[in-house]
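Hey,
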Amino acid sequence: MVILIDYTRQPGDTGNEYQIKAFADDKSAVTEGMTIQNMPPEWIIQPGSIIYTANGDVAFYTSDGVWNWVA
């Protein structure tokens, strides 16, 4: 399960573009096409978005549309 915990708009964002912060139980919950609870389906995730896991793993969303795990 992945849950939206915060969001913001960055300069230049238009329409449904948002930078998000989310929490996941573990890394395996973070997949391409995953559903993020509490996030409207029409939102477009922007680079710099972050997902944290219960184990302290952190992923940043890159400009090429993938989650890059750093911890």
